[in-house]
Design a protein that fits this description.
Blueprint (H helix, E strand, L loop, with lengths): L11 H5 L2 H8 L4 H16 L8 H9 L6 E3 L16 H10 L7 E2 L4 E2 L4 H10 L5 E5 L2 H13 L3 E5 L5 E3 L2 E2 H6 L4 E5 L7 H7 L4 E7 L15 H4 L6 E6 L15 H6 L4 E5 L10 E5 L1 H9 L10 H11 L4 H7 L2 H16 L17 E7 L11 E9 L3 H6 L3 E3 L1 E3 L2 E5 L8 H10 L2
Parallel strand pairs: 1-15, 5-8, 5-9, 9-10, 10-11
Antiparallel strand pairs: 2-3, 4-12, 6-7, 11-12, 13-14, 14-17, 16-17
Helix pairs in contact: 2-3, 3-4, 5-13, 6-13, 15-17
The structure holds pyridoxal-5'-phosphate (PLP).
């Protein structure tokens, strides 16, 4: 079988001679680890999972320390597997500044201990004037656990059967809530739950009513949900988990709830993620009534859920800047098309940044219409028009194994690099990454 690609798999000594692998063997990685990576890559080529020409790149990639930088060209703006929201340059700089010693719990004027994270809490409170008080924990799941523990342990949380949500990777909110010792009092049905259903279930044992935004699915047809404005007339607190972290209404996403609207409607507490549509670091925001926020903050569990100084720094900078997720969401289609044409021309002319044209055949890069989505378990069914570079599908793996890695999506037999999820300041790197693979 002379055409058998397996015969083209390079021999171990040939692969080990590659300067990057030789360097790794001589350096920190050690010879046996490098050899193991090469053998594993050869095995994957034998199984037909990678091409023989990709053995070296696969071995180099396997040896790289993680986590590795990825350019998100998937068109999914908040990609959970790629770490959700990319931080703004301002947030990155703030994390750098906070990485050493910082005044996170120290008043530089008086030289005394100060409230932890007071500047970010003040910034959040200023952005959401409807909140009497605010608190920040490790993520939205932690915010819910803290609320359930502090307000409903040994008591009941009244929740609609239509809002018993699985948030991803097999994690179910009902299980999370019950793990705190609270009991769930389910009301209504999958598709219809009315205010009366809640009112009949609320009683002595109620800790709070919980409204969960069904952020990663949509129910259509014969449906009814109870508005927060009506539930807030009940004699118990209404806690609203909005998921996405929008502080204000976003005109482009009319179905996504936001913190301010929910508080104005009478929610006692609102919880949200920091790293979805807010575009910041992983965090859980808790905003609302002062007495309830105080109870949460003073609960012993709060200490186990507190965020570190880097998160506080990044969150504060996010609140004061335009994060990449918001810029991507609002990016103008004509501008995306303009970028795409420019990049495609550079790729087809094999023209890297400030370089003479490289030799070799044209790559065959086309500009095509695409559709981006919000992702990260947000705005299901919402499609954002976008533009992509279409490339031969054989580039998908080498692009993923590059440095930085580039993640696109394969559709219709081509690799699409969707530009809505790529910040424009990464365009040069994107061109270089593509040219390096051809
Ligand atoms: C994403 C999401 C969560 C979980 O938030 P994390 O910040 O990932 O813990 C909880 N509830 C809803 C409605 C969500 O969309």
């Amino acid at each position: 079988m002379s055409g058998d690609p397996r015969r083209r798999i390079p021999r171990t000594d040939e692969v080990l001679a590659d300067p990057r692998l030789a360097g790794a063997a001589a350096g920190g990685a050690g010879r046996s680890a490098v050899k193991a990576a090469v053998v594993a890559a050869q095995q994957r080529a034998r199984e037909g999972r990678i091409a023989p020409e990709e053995v070296v790149a696969a071995a180099v990639s396997a040896l790289a320390a993680g986590p590795r930088r990825v350019i998100n060209a998937t068109g999914v703006l908040v990609h959970t597997n790629l770490g959700r929201a990319p931080l703004s340059p301002a947030a990155v700089a703030a994390m750098g500044a906070a990485a050493g010693c910082t005044d996170v719990e120290f008043d530089l004027e008086t030289g005394e201990r100060a409230r932890r994270g007071r500047t970010v809490l003040a910034a959040l409170a200023a952005t959401v004037p409807e909140a009497e008080d605010v608190h920040v924990v490790n993520n939205n799941a932690a915010a819910l656990v803290l609320a359930a523990t502090a307000l409903a342990a040994g008591r009941e949380i009244v929740i609609s059967r239509g809002e018993m949500v699985e948030i991803g990777d097999g994690f179910r909110l009902p299980d999370l809530l019950e793990s705190t010792g609270a009991r769930l009092r389910e009301v209504g049905t999958t598709n219809r739950t009315r205010v009366r259903d809640y009112a009949e279930a609320v009683g002595e044992a109620t800790g709070f009513v919980l409204k969960v935004h069904p952020s990663n699915f949509r129910v259509e047809g014969f449906i009814a949900a109870a508005p927060v404005a009506e539930l807030s007339a009940l004699p118990v607190p209404v806690v609203v988990d909005i998921g996405s972290g929008l502080l204000d209404p976003e005109p482009l996403l009319p179905d996504e709830p936001d913190v301010r609207t929910m508080l104005r409607a009478g929610a006692a507490l609102v919880t949200a993620s920091g790293d979805k549509l807010l575009g910041g670091p992983q965090a859980g925001l808790i905003l609302g009534r002062a007495d309830l926020v105080h109870r949460l903050r003073r609960h012993p569990l709060a200490r186990a859920l507190r965020v570190d100084k880097l998160t506080l720094a990044a969150l504060e900078a996010t609140l004061r800047s335009d994060p990449p997720v918001r810029l991507a969401l609002r990016a103008d289609l004509a501008e995306l098309r303009h970028r795409a044409r420019h990049l495609a021309g550079r790729i087809d002319d094999r023209l890297g940044d400030g370089e003479a044209a490289r030799s070799g055949p044209a790559v065959g890069c086309e500009v095509v219409d695409s559709v981006s989505v919000v992702g990260g378990g947000g705005a299901p069914g919402c499609e954002l028009p976008s533009v992509a570079l279409a490339l031969p599908v054989r580039l998908a793996l080498p692009l993923r194994l590059g440095d930085p890695a580039v993640a696109g999506r394969v559709a219709g037999g081509r690799l699409l690099l969707d530009l809505r999820s790529v910040p424009p300041d990464l365009d040069e790197e994107l061109v270089r990454a593509v040219l390096a693979c051809t």
